Amino acid sequence: VKMIKQQNSVFEADLTSRAAYLSKLHSYMMFVDMDFQQVKQTEVVSMGFAHFRTNLFRNHVVIPELFVQTQFDAGRGLEERFLIGAGPRFNVLSRDSVNLTFNISLFYEQENWKDESDSVLMILQNNNPKLSFNFTFRKILTKFVLTFFSYRRVAWNSKTS
Q1: What is this structure's pTM?
Q2: 3-class secondary structure, 75
Q3: CA-CA 20 to 30 A from 144: which of 3, 52, 110, 119?
Q4: Which residues contact 142 (CB under 8 A, 6 or more apart)?
Q5: Which 8-state DSSP code applies to residue 156?
């Protein structure tokens, strides 16, 4: 039996958190995902986001929704992304086991990208107003099983791709 000493040191850290507080009137949600991986002293993966959302008067048919998010993705060159937005969420169907919602949100996004092409480091900044649509369907099948479908589409932004 030949024993080989591991040549590379690997560091990895993942954080995923989902939290919600549902008061009688409003809901407050926080979503956090972070992923860090380092081999030897080289960062391989470094990305994550933190998102906070609140729904005011959550049991009404039309629900004002506010949100803020920060994000980074070093592997793609995204130094930081910040967005803030709001819009109405429409409670189309709300029964004991079925929920159908639709929302339209206007948000402002600011991104800082790192570009190292041609051996020159540049920081590129995008500032975009955007409009997005989201459709969500949720069905509770049993006490422990829930089906969930969500579709999101950014329909408009100030720059054409």
Answers
A1: 0.80
A2: helix
A3: 52
A4: none
A5: E
d(CA 151, CA 104): 12
Contact 87, 96 (CB under 8 A): no
End-to-end CA distance of the chain: 58
Q: Which long-range contacts (CB under 8 A, 24 or more apart) does 81-88 make?
A: 81/49, 81/109, 81/110, 81/111, 81/112, 82/109, 82/110, 82/111, 83/107, 83/108, 83/109, 83/110, 84/108, 85/130, 88/62, 88/63, 88/64
Tens-digit pLDDT string for the chain (161 aa): 666 666 677 888 999 999 999 999 999 999 999 998 888 777 777 999 999 999 999 999 999 999 999 999 988 889 999 999 999 999 999 888 999 999 999 999 999 998 777 666 778 888 999 999 999 999 989 888 889 899 988 876 555 44
With b meaning 16 or more CB within 10 Å and e meaning fewer, what string describes 61-71? eebebebebeb
